Amino acid sequence: MSTGPEGIEEFKAAIHRYKHLLRGGEIDYDAAVRVESIELEIIERLRSEESIVRVLEAEPLERALARLRDRVERLILEVAERMGEESVEPARALEAFYTGDTSVPGFSSALVVVQAFARLKAKLYEDSNGIIKHVSPVCPVCGALSKTMQVGGDEKYYMICPFCGYKWLVSEGRLVCPYCGNSDALSVGIFSGKKTKRLGLAWCQKCGSTWRVVLDTSIRVPRLLLPLIAHGAEIYRPFIRDSAGRGGES
Ligand SMILES: [Zn+2]
Ligand SMILES: [Zn+2]
Description:
This protein has helices spanning about 5-15, 30-45, 50-60, 60-65, 70-85, 90-100, 105-130, 225-230, 235-245, and strands at about 150, 155-160, 165-170, 190, 200-205, 210-215. By secondary structure, it is an alpha+beta fold. It has a six-stranded mixed beta sheet with strand order 3-2-1-6-5-4. It is globular. The two termini are about 35 Å apart.
């Protein structure tokens, strides 16, 4: 994950290049770039503060955010001003973020700030632990649920966190269901196009889970864009419904 000043150029280039794959092209380019540059700048600032880095390294994300509460709230106010969000009460905005209430003023600002902390934590975690093996769809760094798998050229199957960008290894050599650990090739597989195998939709018949897979190893983008690209795999969902037939999970 690139968080340096060059990060924004990489982000812009990736959005440009993969516009056609990003959620059917409905991405608001200018808004996405504006938000990303604010987030990258906050990450850089936080990273240069030793006291913050220490708390993020020592505590799980939620506890770290609670300990850094004053700082978090001040940043929410700053971001709200920069993004033009009005009547923002940081404490309420933060609560709205946790409950998912997008109607509360400041929700987006709180999201940007919490995500900046989460991304920095992911970076620090990866610096000291590398990419860990973790057979689960739940991010070991921030606790977010991932629906996005990426296949490496070395036949490694990774999950990508849509919130903090951490990447963890689920299996090597063969597909394993991150939800239940099933590795039986007869009951866990990937639906994809016959010719273009860029994206696929994985389905585990044992536990009924489905998740999206970026199969094309030539797609190189900042990790947080992968879940948006993988979303295109939804076009294969009807195949799962057909195969599942009656009583199957959709
Ligand atoms: Zn995460
Ligand atoms: Zn499963």
